[in-house]
Amino acid sequence: MCMTEQSFARPAAFVFLDDVRETFLRMFSQNDIQRAIAHSLQKSFEKVLREKMQHYNSSREEIDKVALLEKNVRSYSEEIIQANGFFIFLNERTDRTKIWEDRFDGTKSRELKNRV
Quick one: angle between helices 10-27 and 42-58, nearest 10? Predict the structure, then answer.
């Protein structure tokens, strides 16, 4: 959970949380986290958390830009994934068309033309 002032950009708050989470997971092993008693890791992480808070509060403008950039990258990645799915669909349709084309060779088309 993260509380900020209204002027602090929401995406920047999520960048902060991601940074804190990654730092926490680098500092402590999974075993440390599982065996920790309530607030036992607080002393060793308190200084790091304070430094991160100061950093994110002092450089809001850059962090807002980074957060906006990350948001745009996520949006573009989703669009690329959707486009990739569409291209796969088109490729499958083309393959099916080729199969029907092979089945419906020139002799069958002449037979159909003569019937009509």
Answer: 150
Angle between helix 10-27 and 60-103 (nearest 10) = 90
27-51: pLDDT as tens digits: 999 888 888 888 888 888 999 999 9
* Burial group, residue 14, by CB count within 10 angstroms (0-12, 13-18, 19+): middle
Rounded CA-CA distance 8/57 in Å is 9
Predicted model pTM: 0.49
Which long-range contacts link 51-58 to residues 24+ away (Cβ below 8 Å)?
52/16, 52/19, 52/20, 52/23, 53/16, 56/12, 56/15, 56/16, 56/19
Half-sphere exposure of 20 (CA within 13 A, CB side): 20
Distance in angstroms (rounded) separating the CA atoms of residues 65 and 69: 6
Q: pLDDT at position 66, please?
A: 74
Phi, psi of 59 (to 5 degrees): -125, 50
